[in-house]
Amino acid sequence: MFDTLRSFVDALRAAGELREIQAQVDPHLEITEIADRCMKRDDGGPALLFSDVKGSRFPLLINAFGSPARMARALGVGTLDELGAKVGKLLELVKPGGSSGALSKLFEARELLGIAPKTVRSGACQEVVAQDEEVDLRELPVLTCWPMDGGPYITLPLVFTKNEQTGEQNVGMYRMQVYDARTTGMHWQRHKHGREHQDAAGPGRRMPVAVALGGDPALTYAASAPLPSGLDEMLLAGFLRGRAVPMVACKTVDLRVPADADFVLEGYVDNDELRREGPFGDHTGVYSLAEDYPVFHVTCMTRRRDPIYVTTIVGKPPMEDAWLGKATERLFLPILKQMLPEVVDYNLPVEGGFQNLVIVSIRKRYPGQAKKVMYALWGLGHMMMLTRNVIVVDADVDVQNVRDVAWVTLNNVDAGRDLVFAPGPVDALDHAAPLPSLGTKLGIDATRKGADEGYMRQWPPDIIMSDDVKALVTRRWAEYGLSAPEPRT
User: Fold this and answer.
1) Concatenated DSSP letters of 87-145
2) Residue of 216, 260, 262, 282 marked active site
């Protein structure tokens, strides 16, 4: 694991996963085009470190998480599948009961595990301090990503807020349009915890906000994870790191931030002040349109002496954020199985942009079970509640093989029997919904059917070659000194 962003960069350099660009580049569109071409490569392209960004003295890192290998490296595992195994082992120790509170139970031994965030007296994130009129966000190499964007956007912020009624901190990731030297937009949607804290603060209140940039890459991932309300993302980061995240008190607001962050922005959001934010080229592959969102006023900016500005771009997949989503998919699989024991595996295809499609395989034991799973997934809070489409397949279907899933779905589904329409909340970025944040979700039951589900014929068997013929062909290939292709499973 890594205490700092710079140590992660050093590890990528040593592994041959980093390309360093000394030529001057423009943060207005040019870096996006360079990064997008890398991200669209089959291997995700290398991480890119730009040392000479026009208009800024700070280096810029992008595509740091742009492959499964780099995402795994950032979280201290060999493969992303190891994340699920790590959570599964802890679940075995804690043994949470019932279908709710699995995550809370998972971390109830946090003090014993030594993963609870700890407060320290000072941190490298405060080596250089600028306050009030000294603050100038334009010093940062913030990208204007796409031609129709409303302005430059901070895209990987760790936004810290506090519920004033409970005192609990939360960190989320909400894009921030930079308006001028000391103000940005704060794009927290009504389903997000930052908005929940803002509402709890009440009208006419200035709610303290702090934004950290950089630091241990596990912190950036944790801020993007869809944790339930009341569960500190820094606790998740501590679990991933295997040790507590050191936190330091902010200089001007009553919040704590990671002591090893590269930059920290401190300030406030006034609940009664809204400003037009957007458009923004989003992970849906289209622009999310301009709307009114709260304004973040920056009253203090602190940083390391040698900071790196880390950022990303989003757009038509595949993009770097795909692997943040895949990390979440693998991390939460054991918890999903704890809540829904019939689940075998699930897949959030990159093409679905996290919330447009989930494919889940189940061990089906009774009629209607696939539909029961659909409704359960839509009821799982932030993780699944906004998912547009759910496809349920049988246990023997590999959900990670989208071609096989398509074949099964196109062959097994009768529209009158197997489609479920569920009106309800959808993502604010869902441009297809007839109303903002409200639409209809689709469930597709692609499991095999029997008489107990109204199928009055005999379900036809799949075409499968006999094992003795498979073995014979393999032996024949070997006789000719050839390596036989693996038989189809």
Assistant:
1) HHHHHHHH---SSS-HHHHHTTTHHHHT-S-EEES--GGGSEEEEGGG--GGGS--BB-
2) 282
pLDDT of residue 426: 79
Separation between Cα atoms, residue 207 and residue 195, nearest integer Å: 11
Preceding omega of 318 cis (within 30 degrees of 0): yes
Tokens of 305: 């002496």
In the predicted structure, residue 280 carries a pLDDT above the cut 60: yes
Tens-digit pLDDT profile for residues 248-262: 999 999 999 999 999
Q: Which of 301, 363, 353 is nearest to 324 (CA)?
A: 353
Where residue 397 falls (left for φ over 0; alpha for ψ -120 to 50; beta otherwise) is beta
CA distances from 124 to 10, 140, 190, 230 (A): 18, 18, 34, 28
How far, in Å, are 36, 79, 103, 378 from residue 334 at the CA level?
33, 16, 10, 18
DSSP state of 461: P
Residue 51 to residue 61: CA distance in whole angstroms: 9
Question: In percent, how much of the chain has pLDDT > 90?
Answer: 60
Q: List domains and CATH numbers for the chain.
A: 5-310 (2.30.110.10), 340-453 (3.40.1670.10)
Q: Say whether 282 is catalytic.
A: yes
- What is the rounded CA–CA span in Å between residue 106 and residue 424? 30
Phi, psi of 47, deg, nearest 5? -70, 145
**Which amino acid belongs to residue 84?**
G
Q: How many angstroms separate the CA atoms of 58 and 79, rounded? A: 32
Mean per-residue pLDDT of the chain: 88
pLDDT 10s digits, 197-246: 677 767 767 899 999 999 999 999 998 887 766 678 898 888 888 889 99
- List pLDDT tens digits, range 173-190: 999 999 999 999 999 866
**Can you tell me the distance from the alpha carbon of 143 to that of 312, in angstroms, rounded to the nearest whole number?**
9
